[in-house]
Amino acid sequence: MKFYFKTVTSVALLMAFIFCIMPFGVVTAKQESRFSGYSTTLTTRASTSETINYTRKEYTTVETVKGVPKYNQVSDLTNSCGAIAGAIIVGFYDKYYEDLVPNYQTYVSSGTYKGRDSVHIPALMRELYTLMRTNIDDVGVSEKDCLNGLKAYVSGKGHSIAYNSVKYINRLNETTCTNAINNNHPILLFCDKMDLYEFSLLENSDVLVCSTYVGGHVCVGYGIYVVNYYNGNNLFRTDKYIHVSTGLGMSTGYLKIDSTDWCNGAYEVVVS
Questions:
Q1: 254 neighbors 244 (Cβ within 8 angstroms)
Q2: How many angstroms separate the most distant Cα atoms in the chain?
Q3: CA angle 128, 134, 135 (to 5 degrees)
Q4: Each residue's pLDDT tens digit, 98-148
Q5: How many whole angstroms separate alpha carbon 68 and alpha carbon 269?
Q6: Ramachandran region of residue 247, left (φ > 0), alpha (ψ -120 to 50) or beta?
Q7: Three-state DSSP class for 229?
Q8: At 138, phi and psi to the nearest 5?
Q9: Distance (Å, whole) CA 1 – CA 55
Q10: Distance between CA atoms of 102 and 91, rounded to whole angstroms?
Q11: Which of 94, 126, 156, 245 is a plausible cystine mate for 101, CB 3.0–4.6 Å?
Q12: Rounded to two decimals, what is the model's pTM?
């Protein structure tokens, strides 16, 4: 009986030790993020607004040539933000490599990008949707599958694609983002959430309206906007934004570069 008691006690202690360790492994292990966009996981909180009063302001802005396409969802493709963002990238580069979207020109003679048509861009989205393995392992796409699917599509058209990170720790790197856009390269953004800003410009005041989208989403950055606010000669505020094509009903908006709570991954995309 003594031997039995010691054995049970030893086993119990061992099991307790394993039980105590296992939760820490589960909790601290990095889970693969998913990005689903149009789904119940992407919800909008009530918008908030802020008024900034000033005597003068100075701003600088850089954008890719003629921006990027402003595509939105195809109704039968659920959780499709990865495919939409990928289509925006492909549509952008089709102006320079017209075989990327066969039998279709994504821009008009002025160089301005067309909106989504009813045939060719939906077909592009469907192909990317499959290549990105959307909804296969879980809802939406992973960052890896999104990047790999876009690469597979571009490679299949006989072109090369490179991804250069423009992120620094847990936020965007303003310098590398600006350099990318100055070089006419769009930026693929993997967002944990989106605080999406719009502006109403009044005399000596700006009204910032922020809509918070909760849930993973993929969008495309194509501009940098920096604004300095002054009262007299006193600089009292500087705001820095990246201009994005959202793939949502609100086709464009601004995300704050300095925020540290939204950027999961960010890549300059170069197609050649």
A1: yes
A2: 92
A3: 160
A4: 999 999 999 999 999 999 999 999 999 999 999 999 988 888 899 999 999
A5: 13
A6: left
A7: strand
A8: -170, -175
A9: 88
A10: 11
A11: 94
A12: 0.86
d(CA 115, CA 108): 10
The answer to whether the Cα torsion of 78, 160, 93, 226 is positive or negative is positive
Contacts of 135 (CB under 8 A, 6+ apart): 78, 79
Amino acid found at 14: L
Residue range 128-141, pLDDT digits in tens: 999 999 988 888 89
Q: In whole angstroms, how far apart are CA 267 and each of 11, 125, 138, 207, 212?
A: 51, 20, 23, 30, 22
* Token code pair at residue 152: 């597979």
Q: By the 8 A CB rule, do 218 and 162 touch?
A: no
Contact 244, 188 (CB under 8 A): no
Q: Measured between alpha carbons, how far is 133 from 118 in angstroms, rounded to an integer?
A: 23
Length of the chain in terms of residues written = 272
The whole-number mean pLDDT for each consecutive block of 10 residues of the chain, a chain of 272 residues, reads: 38 38 34 67 75 96 97 90 97 97 96 95 97 89 96 98 95 96 98 92 94 91 98 97 90 93 95 98
Nearest of 217, 265, 266, 180 to residue 84 by alpha carbon:
217
DSSP state of 31: P
Cα(252)–Cα(267) distance, integer angstroms: 19
